Amino acid sequence: MGGYDFQVFWNAGSALLTGRSPYTVEGFFYPLPAALFFVIFALVPRTVAFYGWLAFNIALLFHKIGRRALAWLLYFPMIHFLSSGQVDLILWILACSLNQGVLSALMAAVITLKPQVAFVVLPHYLFKWLRHSHHTLGWFILFTVMLWGIPTLVYPRWVQEWRTSVPPLNALSRSNSPGLWSLERIFPHMGGVIFVLAVLVFLWGLFQKREVAWASAMLANPSGLFYTTILMTDAAPPGLLVPLSWLAVILSLMWRNFVPWMFLPLAVILFHRSQWQKPQWPWPR
């Protein structure tokens, strides 16, 4: 990808630095609060910023999961992520670090700046906080309102500009997701059935452990692209998901759809179901 996505982020940050709307940048689909973070990138030349971002992400991955990172660097979504300069790995690390308290609430609020990622990783924690930690949920709501609300008070037009720039969530975009909605490309008249199935899978996932909850939410998510499966990093052994990711690439090219990417969250669920009464894989929680 040659840092294409990072180029968009850098351009959006540069636009803000020069007093322009980030939505004048082609391909920028993030909310305005996220664009404020991208200003940091634009303070240095693009190439320097890209390779610095690349090194920072790799270092964080090794810090989070240690030597297992060597295997996960072969995971196709990870390769795509690193080459494009996306932000999902940072959000994954924040999500893996969530627990209870003010800091977790703040990190969760930051994750909302990429809604398609938030849909996958936050419901598990929001449901847990609703049942067991109302103070964390309250802080999350406060931080989220501040993070989204303060830029809106300063520049109210950004919401309309953002909505105009974001591609519509139609049958085509839903079928590009790495979950159940990818089946809509094969069964275009089965949207109602897929919706019901997605809701049931999502609700079931709320009562499961974190890795299964995330995989269930990914199956139910009508947005996102194949590389959103980077959120499955370390959710099952790399010996399972790394080869499966490359199989998904091959089958996607052969079948000309994204249905094979559904195999990754399904594999996570099946792996954990098979481990239900066995010693647990040592993921960071």
Mean pLDDT: 91
Main β-sheet: number of strands, strand sense, barrel status?
A: none
Task: Tell me the count of domains.
Answer: 2
Span from first to last CA? 31 Å
* Helix-strand sequence: HHHHHHHHHHHHHHH
Coarse structural class: mainly alpha
Low-confidence stretches: none
Number of helices: 15
What does this entry look like structurally?
- The chain is an all-alpha fold and 285 residues long.
- It folds into two domains: 4-165, no CATH class; 171-274, no CATH class.
- The chain is built from 15 helices and no strands.
- Helix 7 crosses helix 9 (134-154) and helix 13 packs antiparallel against helix 15 (263-274).
- The longest helix has 21 residues, at 134-154.
Question: Keyphrases for this structure?
Answer:
285 residues, mainly alpha
Write the layout of secondary structure elements.
Blueprint: H1 4-17, H2 32-42, H3 46-65, H4 68-72, H5 76-84, H6 88-96, H7 102-111, H8 115-132, H9 134-154, H10 158-165, H11 171-175, H12 191-205, H13 210-220, H14 238-255, H15 263-274
